[in-house]
Design a protein that fits this description.
Helices cover 33% and strands 23% of the residues. It has 349 residues and is of the alpha/beta class. Strands 6-7-8-3-9-10-12-11 form an eight-stranded mixed beta sheet, sandwiched between helices. A four-stranded antiparallel beta sheet has the order 2-1-4-5, covered by helices on one side. Strand 7, helix 8 and strand 8 form a beta-alpha-beta unit. It starts with a strand and ends in a 7-residue tail after the last helix. The relative contact order is 0.13. Bound molecules: adenosine-5'-diphosphate and magnesium ion. The site of adenosine-5'-diphosphate has 15 residues, from strand 1, strand 2 and helix 1. Adenosine-5'-diphosphate binds next to strand 1, strand 2 and helix 1. It is found in: Cell membrane. InterPro entries: AAA+_ATPase (IPR003593), ABC_Ni/Peptide_Import (IPR050388), ABC_transporter-like_ATP-bd (IPR003439), ABC_transporter-like_CS (IPR017871), Oligopep_ABC_C (IPR013563), P-loop_NTPase (IPR027417). It is a peripheral membrane protein.
């Protein structure tokens, strides 16, 4: 598999009246052709700032890329002008946001909203673009697309609107689709349908997907690899199996332990104690240490590097240092992972 995107040591801050909010603090990851990478973490961990930076949509002038590279097919997007980014956005890299209503124009027919990009980026005429719009609505599972194409956003339910947004995002056959919590605003049944649709898209179009969510539970179903983010950093990255069945970072243990599973309804759900740090004053050392029952002395002083667990698996915790005490994941977390595996949520196969 070849690398489509390489993000290297990306740092993004916001200049605010209170000071510098360090939202992204040295994020590195690769995205291969045709794969789905999930980025998971609690609210405020820097997932959306990372994705809007990839799209060149950082709010200006407050948002600043402090350093780093975003290599897309070898070209650094950080160095591109807004004009150059407009040619990439929607065509090469496109995005689906959490709230479908905010991405749609309420006063414009759905069809015209899909057609825009096709005319702009693909040089189609109106008739060709309309035909393609109908095909796209069909592809994302909207019944009667030839009627729906002439309707307005308010005539669609929440789930159907999100399908429309996905159709718009797919219109120009992007190489990368970034979906930032695409199911968070939807109810559980509709969530599952949209996730299923994302899987189909992956299968049929071979688009690479960055799937962002705070819900680790949905990840096993959709992703090939998982990056766990905390306080503006990736603290663990690996294949779905690495992260679900051999997690190494205590924060990942916490996320797995607090994941509801079908056969664990009577068990008390674990919650990670405390709250994420204030990114105006990120802590010294390991940002997770104050919430980590397994924290070592060094965590208060020095940030852990990424330790290699295997060729596919890395985690930033001092527990992986060769001199660290041997600490295994808590039994309650292990049981929950087993419950998760057993209830077949890691579904499909
Ligand atoms: P997530 O998507 O993981 O929930 P975000 O990427 O939205 O988190 O936010 C990361 C951090 O950046 C948070 O501390 C958030 O408060 C801060 N942040 C996001 N947008 C802005 C902004 N426009 N101005 C100042 N701070 C921001
Ligand atoms: Mg977000």
């Amino acid at each position: 598999m070849s690398k489509l995107l390489e993000v290297k040591d990306l740092r993004v801050s916001f200049n605010t009246y209170n000071g510098e909010v360090q939202a992204v603090r040295g994020v590195s990851f690769d995205l291969n052709e045709g794969e789905t990478l999930a980025i998971v973490g609690e609210s405020g961990s820097g997932k959306s700032v990372t994705s809007s930076t990839l799209m060149g949509l950082l709010p200006k002038p407050a948002g600043v890329i402090k350093s780093g590279q975003i290599l897309f097919q070898g070209e650094d997007l950080v160095k591109k002008s807004e004009k150059e980014m407009q040619k990439i956005r929607g065509k090469e890299i496109s995005m689906v946001f959490q709230d479908p209503l905010s991405s749609l124009n309420p006063t414009m027919k759905i069809g015209n909203q899909i057609i825009e990009g096709l005319i702009k980026h693909q040089g189609m005429n109106r008739a060709e673009a309309k035909k393609k719009a109908i095909e796209l609505l069909d592809q994302v599972g909207i019944p009667h697309p030839e009627i729906r194409v002439n309707q307005y956003p308010h005539q669609f339910s929440g789930g159907m609107r999100q399908r429309v947004v996905i159709a718009i995002a797919l219109a120009c056959n992007p190489k990368i689709l970034i979906a930032d919590e695409p199911t968070t605003a939807l109810d559980v049944t509709i969530q599952a349908q949209i996730l299923e649709l994302m899987k189909e898209i992956q299968r049929d179009t071979k688009t690479s997907i960055i799937f962002i969510t705070h819900d680790l539970g949905v990840v096993a179903n959709v992703a090939d690899r998982v990056a766990v983010m905390y306080a503006g950093k990736i603290v663990e990255i690996g294949t779905v199996d690495d992260v679900f069945y051999n997690p190494k970072h205590p924060y990942t243990w916490g996320l797995l332990g607090s994941m509801p599973t079908l056969d664990a309804e009577d068990e008390e759900l674990y919650t990670i104690p405390g709250t994420p740090p204030d990114m105006l004053n990120p802590p010294k050392g390991d940002a997770f240490a104050p919430r980590n029952e397994f924290a070592l002395e060094i965590d208060a002083v020095m940030e852990p590097p990424m330790f290699k667990v295997s060729d596919t698996h890395y985690a930033a915790t001092w527990l992986l240092h060769k001199n660290a005490p041997k600490i295994e994941m808590p039994e309650s977390v292990r049981r929950r992972i087993e419950g998760f595996a057993k209830t077949g949520k890691k579904g499909g196969e």
